[in-house]
Specification:
The protein is an alpha+beta fold. It has one domain: Cytochrome p450. Helices cover 44% and strands 9% of the residues. The chain has 14 helices and twelve strands. It has helices at 33-40, 60-67, 105-113, 119-142, 149-154, 156-166, 173-183, 190-213, 219-224, 234-265, 267-275, 280-291, 323-326, 361-378; strands at residues 43-47, 53-57, 72-73, 81-82, 89-90, 147-148, 299-302, 306-308, 311-313, 318-321, 383-384, 406-408. The strands form four sheets. It has a five-stranded mixed sheet, with helices on one face. A three-stranded antiparallel sheet has the order 6-12-11. A two-stranded antiparallel sheet has the order 4-5. A hairpin with a 6-residue loop joins strand 4 (81-82) and strand 5. Helix 6 (156-166) runs antiparallel to helix 10, helix 8 crosses helix 10 and helix 10 (234-265) packs across helix 12. The relative contact order is 0.18. It holds the Pfam family p450.
Length: 409
């Protein structure tokens, strides 16, 4: 299997290793340091880019326990909580989206939004998802070869569908897509990040006002007409909408591109899936576990002293709960570094776990199933034109992925 380059040097007793760590071996597997951490120091210190230190939790059982421990918080108003993406900690403690809230505040937003992402609701949307995928693949077909699957399919499909679900006008789709990309890049200067946040928030606030005047059947309308007794400020409602857009757009786009690469690299499994499309739902769950693209989106902070795997974490200390490491833990998944479409993936943490488990997982799964089935049915001879180790990977994004994927058919 092709590799991506040198690994990050291990730390010493006086100097903890740098975090985030790169996928320096096979791009489909998490950083190789994770396996060492699981076996030798499952709760360990690491240093972030700003020089602050955090705890890394790497074993499945410990990650699961931490995600359900009320003493371990997602609350972004607590000073010192790590920033999503691994750039550092927040010294001020600022309110962000409902994803970075604890109960009971978190529960208010979840109850508002969950009805739009139930299995029943998503089943009614599958024809619309299919039309969106077909349209994107038509554009790819007509664009000439080689074509960039990332630009023409992976980014387009979730962006169009999420904007429609929110109620964002089609004319605004490109605006929100470009700003969402900025928010997820770790290397973006802080002034550009703040500008993107403010621009998105301003547009969301304007859309909320528009939905009050002209309501529709969409999430922004529901938020705009949230019950008055909830006493939710427009800035908070706009933040909730922004969270849905950011998470569902980039994570699904990364999964489409990397998942396509995995399938092309496993022709035996792909042949089975082409022969029996009923296998796609299980294969998608395995792709989610195997790739675990959102490894940097579970920052936490201890609200009080807590012990994890024998290690004391003091109140006010930050943690990263490593979902990719948990999903490749040999104590929970047999032969975890092998892609196996027939394995049981029950319990995988690609969508998190517990009360903060991703509300959009049913939508994402449906998109992935339809994209992969349609892509390989319509383009049975699809292939990537660049070797795996020569592709440009998203090492600077909160969601690991690939910047471009040139394909021919």
């Amino acid at each position: 299997m092709a590799t991506l380059g040198p690994t990050v040097p291990a730390g010493t007793a006086d100097s903890p290793p740098s975090f985030p760590m790169r996928r320096s071996g096979c791009p489909f597997n998490p950083p190789p340091e994770y396996e060492t951490l699981r076996s030798t120091e499952p709760v360990s210190r690491a240093m972030l880019r700003d020089g602050s230190t955090v705890w890394l939790v790497s074993r499945y059982a410990d990650v699961q326990a931490a995600l359900t421990d009320p003493r371990i918080s997602s609350d972004s108003t607590i000073p010192g909580i790590p920033l999503a993406g691994g750039t550092g900690v927040d010294p001020q403690g600022r309110r962000s989206s409902f994803v970075r809230m604890d109960p009971p505040e978190h529960d208010v937003y979840r109850k508002l939004l969950v009805p739009d992402f139930t299995m029943r609701k998503i089943r009614t949307l599958r024809p619309r998802i299919q039309r969106t995928v077909d349209d994107a693949l038509d554009v790819m077909r007509d664009s000439g070869q080689p074509a960039d699957l990332v630009k023409l399919v992976a980014l387009r499909v979730p962006s169009v569908l999420t904007c429609e679900l929110l109620g964002v006008p089609e004319s605004e789709h490109h605006f929100f897509q470009t700003r969402a990309n900025v928010l997820l890049e770790r290397s973006v200067p802080m002034n550009e990040l703040r500008t993107a946040v403010m621009e998105m928030r301003t547009h969301m606030l304007a859309l909320l006002d528009e939905k009050r005047r002209n309501p529709g059947d969409d999430i922004l309308t529901k938020l705009a007409h949230a019950p008055a007794e909830l006493e939710l400020a427009d800035s908070e409602l706009a933040g909730a909408a922004q969270s849905v857009l950011n998470a569902s757009h980039e994570s699904t786009a990364s999964m489409i591109a990397l998942g396509t690469l995995v399938l092309l690299e496993h022709p035996g499994a792909l042949a089975e899936l082409k022969a029996d499309p009923a296998l796609w739902p299980k294969a998608v769950e395995e792709l989610l576990r195997y790739l675990s693209v959102g490894d940097l989106v579970l920052p936490r902070i201890a609200k009080e002293d807590v012990e994890i795997a024998g290690q004391r974490i003091a109140a006010g200390e930050g943690l990263y709960l490593l979902a990719a490491s948990a999903n490749h833990d040999k104590d929970f998944f047999e032969d975890p570094d092998t892609f196996d479409i027939h394995r049981s993936t029950r319990g995988h943490m690609a969508y998190g776990y517990g009360i903060h488990q991703c509300i959009g997982q049913n939508m994402a799964n449906a998109e992935l199933e339809i994209v992969f089935e349609t892509l390989f049915r319509r383009f049975p001879d699809l292939r990537c034109t660049v070797p795996l180790d020569e592709l440009s990977y998203k090492h600077e994004s909160a969601f690991f992925g690939v910047h471009e994927l040139p394909v021919t058919w």
